[in-house]
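seq:
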Amino acid sequence: MSELDAYDYHLPRELIAQSPLPERSDARLLVIRRDAQTLEHRFVRDLPDLLAAEDGLVLNDTRVIPARLVGYRTQTRGRWEGLYLGSDEHGVWKILAKTRGKVKPGESVTLQDRQQGDVCRLILLDRIGQGVWAARPDTAEDTLQLLDRAGRVPLPPYIRDGEMADTDRVTYQTVYAEKPGAVAAPTAGLHFTPPLLQKLKNGGLEICRVTLHVGLGTFRPISAASLDEHPMHAEWACIDASTVARLHAIRAAGGRIVAVGTTVVRTLETAAASGQLHPWQGETDLFIRPPYQFRAVDALLTNFHLPKSTLLILVRTFGGDALVRRAYDEAINQGYRFYSYGDAMLIL
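struct:
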């Protein structure tokens, strides 16, 4: 058995959530207590009873952009799909592209909206590698405005084969999303509602924000036999000085730093790489795996993750391998809903 095989598990297809619950905070919450080695069944709406007034909750305020692109090769009219990954100061886009046949630099694709109306042409400039291209739209329109017209919510393929519904524009976005740049939602945050956040604040809990723009790495499976050989794709993240000061104060007062999602864990742990949490921004390619020692995170709220994924490895490293494996077995046996629109676990 390979090192990666240890992170495999069987999930019945009917447990993969295809849509969110009508009320976000009604999601089930499997509470894992590491000190007592116990599992407890609750709901996300119970968080005010599970967290202490002196704790700090850290959210990722990235905003998902409509990054999935659909169209056709302008010359042959062959179907084309792409994923917008970012752009530089010169207006050159970076896209992950998929089509039949061999595409050559200089060729163009015509982007279409959801009604199959032509929006603009995208000139494919050069191959970057691993299916990624440099490209430029033939319009001076603002990138985010153009994506809003031509793009679709980039749902993962296990949700309706990646095909969005109009409601996904709202439901596949946290209620506190602010800074556009992600091509996938920080899904642990999807469970929060304004009333739940207000109730947590009213109970004395401090709520802090960092930013990590979820990127291409989310879509890349581990193919290396050894975890040490897996190349993590970098994602841009940021934590400012005022947030660092607040988190230091929370810890000094005996509170816990509670990360909402693996993206927050990676941001905080990257910023604490020296042993102490510092203000930081830049690209992180941190791959958390055994025997990693956590420096900046005391508790974690997270969704259930795909087998053999870097996110599952992170969670099992944080929660304890045997205990988290037992939690996944329990969640499957109890019919929890899995993945992006599914239920959650809280590791204390």
